[in-house]
Amino acid sequence: MTVEAQLSPGSATAQVQQVYGGSMMNVGMGVTGGGGFQFSPEELDAVIADWEALLEDVREDQTNILYARESALPPAEDVASVGFVRAVVDGLAAFQESNSSMVAYIEDYIGKLRRAKDGNEQTETGNADTAGSFLKAVEA
Fold first, then answer.
1. How far apart are CA 120 and CA 47, in angstroms?
2. What is the mean pLDDT for each group of 10 consecutive residues in the chain (140 residues)?
3. Are 103 and 58 a contacting pair, CB within 8 Å?
4. pLDDT value at position 100?
5. Structural domain containing residue 47
6. Neighbour-count burial for 87-115, b at 16+ CB within 10 Å, e otherwise
7. Shared domain check, 43 and 26
8. Are 3 and 63 part of one and the same domain?
9. Staple 74 to which of 81, 86, 104, 136, CB 3.0 to 4.6 Å?
10. Total domains in the fold of the chain
């Protein structure tokens, strides 16, 4: 059975495959050889801008989560009220941990996108220099 046949139609992997098409195995192979994603410098700038906007939103969420944790106070000192607020604070702590993980992931991903863009621009510059040298040699 292929990897694609094992995917649940509602899974994130299946949804990505629907958007980008092709075999998920081919996407993985892009790292070692054929396939992969290709962006123009302008498209890559737009992708980076989208991820930066997402990072800003997630950081804003981080502030809101912290405020909610600090604001959670029981209306009374009875066992039920204190226990409920403790559960809410514990849930918000887990949410904050997840949010911090998302911030770290997004920052790392933006860094990878920028390094890819910088590497691509250096390669393009090198290719242009090589092509220019070749043309000068041919014209001489």
1. 15
2. 49 56 42 61 91 96 96 96 97 96 96 86 60 62
3. yes
4. 96
5. 39-139
6. eeeeebeeebeebeebeeebeeebeebee
7. no
8. no
9. 81
10. 2
- The residue assigned the tokens 């949804």 is 15
Q: How far is CA 22 from the centre of its chain?
A: 21
Q: In terms of domains, do 9 and 60 share one?
A: no
123 and 79, same structural domain?
yes
Structure tokens at 59: 């950081």
8 Å CB contact between 123 and 116: no
| One domain for residues 56 and 91 | yes
CATH number of the domain residue 128 falls in = 1.10.287.850
- In the numeric block, which tokens belong to residue 12? 């994130």
Q: What pLDDT is recorded for position 118?
A: 85
Q: Cα–Cα distance between 66 and 64 in angstroms, integer?
A: 5
